[in-house]
Amino acid sequence: MSRARRALPAPLSLLLGVLLAALFVRLGFWQWHRGEQRQEAWRSFAAGTARLVALNGASDALPLYQRVAVRGRFDGAHQFLLENRSLQGRPGYEVLTVLRREAQRALLVDRGWLPLGRSRQDLPPVAVSAEPVELTGRLGHLPTPGLALGRAAPRGLWPKLTSFPSMTQLEAAYGAPLEPRLLLLDPGSGPGYAREWTPPGISPLRNFSYALQWWTFALATLVIWAVLTVRRRRSR
Question: Which of 171, 161, 158 lies closest to 105 in space, CA to CA?
């Protein structure tokens, strides 16, 4: 079979090239949009420290990542240990403790990170006093996994182990309504552990760079098609 016969017809090769380039362009815009969303989330995270407000009502009545002050009593008998949480590359748990408030829904407080013990059966001590406390921190969401396979509902005795749970699952385990957002406890505020809160997700710059890569692929696809077309015409 000759080389001319093996080559795709010009209209078909043009169609395939355009479709492939269009796909790359679309993927580029999708990554750019994701970058803008992450950039807005990072801006909200930074803006949350601008002022401290009292949390007297529902947590979702205030902006996400707003820094707040709240009063209550820790319910040390009901705590959750979030598995698969790491700090500086070390595996461990994040400790979620229920904070009871007068005439308000209970609020989950992320008291920070603890390293794994000698084994997963050797749980870290997380006891806390029931004395009244005044805390400060950011309003945030529960962490979410990259894949749904990482989820595990609360299980076992208190403190209950869980991995990327939903607030509904935590409410069911606790047996009472909880605020839809949790408090990311400020470093130095209240009894807690290692706390190094960072903006959610990867840097927006990574999404923007991915977008540029996809657009480069689109341009390269058209250039390659043009070069191959010119060569085919010259070989006739």
Answer: 171
